[in-house]
Design a protein that fits this description.
- The complex is a heterodimer of chains A (464) and B (283).
- In chain A, 67% of the residues lie in helices and 2% in strands.
- Chain A is an all-alpha fold and 464 residues long.
- By secondary structure, chain B is mainly α.
- The radius of gyration of chain B is 24 Å and the shape is flat.
- The chains are: A mainly alpha (464), B mainly alpha (283).
Amino acid sequence: MGIKKKKAQPVYDRPGDAATSQVFKKGNTVTKASFFVFGLGNLMNRQIGRGLFFLALEIAYFIYLFTFGISALGDFITLGTAQQGEVYNAALGIYEYSAGDDSMLCLLYGVITLVLTAAIVFLGCMSGKSAYCTQVRKEKGKHIPTFKDDIKSLKEENLHAFLLAFPIFGIVCFTIVPLIFMILIAFTSYDHEHQPPGNLFSWVGLDNFKAMFSQGSKLAGTFWPVLSWTLIWAVFATVSCFILGMLLALLINRKGTRAKGFWRFMFVLSVAVPQFVTLLSMRTIFNANGPVNVLLREFGIIGATESIPFFTNALYAKITIICINIWIGVPFTMLSTTGILQNIPAELYEAAKIDGASAATIFRKITLPYMLFVMTPNLITSFTGNINNFNVIFLLSGGGPDSMDYYYAGKTDLLVTWLYRLTITQKDYNLGAVIGILVFIILATLSLITYRRTGAYKDEGAFQ
Amino acid sequence: MKTKRFIVNTACHILLAVLSVIWILPILYVILTSFRAESGSYKSYIWPRGFTLDNYINLFHGNSNINFTRWFTNTLVIAIFSTILSAFFVLCVSYVMSRLRFKMRKKFMNIALILGMFPGFMSMIAVYYILKGLGLLETGVLKQVALVLVYSGGAGLGFYMAKGFFDTIPKSIDEAAYIDGATKWDTFVRITIPLSKPIITYTLITAFMGPWVDYIFAKVIMGNDSQYYTIAIGLWTMLEQEFVEYYYTQFYAGCVMISIPISILFLLTQKCYVEGVSGAVKG
């Protein structure tokens, strides 16, 4: 590729890369003004392309704000005032619906406006910093990057901005905005009695959270049992799959085992089948008249007309689900641990053997610690994944057997499947949002503590 | 000593055999039932009394309710587009996080971690209304575009796996390229990407599998537009109370039909999967 001159003269050493407040203090008038008139500093110094880019975005934002944004923000505060009503049309002799405010849309547009505003504030800071950079460069008599340089820098110094732009845009649109929206819904009265566009809902503060935790209410009586089952499920599902999967991998990888590829294939086959197919088939297999019960009847373990209530008895359902999850999860763990097991330095094993260690000791002192070190982030992800494991529960038992003591939940419902029922079936969006937030709080506390402790997070460059 | 080893080995093989039977039996049952001649749902026996190919044939010459071919192509198209988009997102983000150092890096990683902790479909309702606001829920085709966006939009957050892989590529390779005058972009495209075939395949497969497996989002977005259903909703419909008696065996035929391509794909790339998990440059 040859040596280019650019390496020797870095255009982008960012002389004025300081905190925003610092920039505002040190900058000259033009720089300060650039915080409000975007791109001013750039335009004054012949960085036309960059300056116009900033300016155009600012103008676009203000056009949006004055045509639509301000009223959207007003509606966001009130969540709509005019309820949809019936107006008697004397000429036609019928009742007509008068269009009211749609609280849902008020909230949504409000959130979008707020996000856009945050983006424009961020852009303002960038504009100020950019102006300051140019100012410092000019004072030092350095080369001021042209628009062409800017474009070029996207391949080098600003590659991160270039590569991240699209993914971040996607994340903002499809993850962040909806999340903010749903978090806000937790503080409104958007339940089955307040459905827009027919009815308005309004801000209610912490009422939903209070209802969820108030002593003796049906909601609290549902929340705590569902939460405890969720945690029990997540622990059992994660630990069982990890331990058994690793043992299986060891069993297949041990020296004496013949036809390793064949055995691996037998187990991988179940991973290869799409998960919802296995789950739906498992549901029919364990049905009251499904093949498992048929087999048990034929072997005379249960009577000819009896059936074991795999999904209709609460305790049985829980055990069945955990077992089926083992069936699904173990091959996955086996697959991902096989590679890591092969990476354990052979010297360690040889040394242990020379020292006369038994197989059990070797497993306890070498294999397990090594695996735990490598797999901890993986374990945490699968634990959080299990807390949110919607598919297994929903497709297997659908949360059932239902319970009259619960508020629209079944005995095997996880918090997420309960959330699903509350929102999709029951249309209590506010309660659903509250549960979503609670799930988040649980996960965040659990994993931030453990994740920060793992080696993989602390020194990610250890193997580079 | 020799006999002891023999006993242990035999025991291990027997154990493996028993376990594989447990793992194979349900799959076998699915295949058997898909060829069963007797219609109706649950039977008091397991081995079918007669075998037939009708279940498969009916699947493709189905009536208005069951349009398997259509569902299959729907899912395939959605899967291909969302795979391309999300693989692009994932690779970009993970390379940036692994190799480039900039101010917001740690912050971005923490935010990604936090966002990953919210239950995925908590935001589903909001996504639904956003798509509606964008006018993407007007016609069936637009709904499919919407579904592609939903599947790939937030994909950038799932960068951990690929980032871990990029982390194992020695930095010295990159530095050698810089000395030769390569820009960072060149290094990404010409050095990192070719070295990362396993993880790229892994990313592609996981993204590709998503639409085949997802039920909820597809259901919420498609509603009752059964023409535009993906496979997962379609098959689920076949098991509903009013259909199960008619379509029980066809359901299994459908399961086999979609499991075959996905399994082949999966088995072909299993090697990449294992390599992807265990790192780039060996030794």
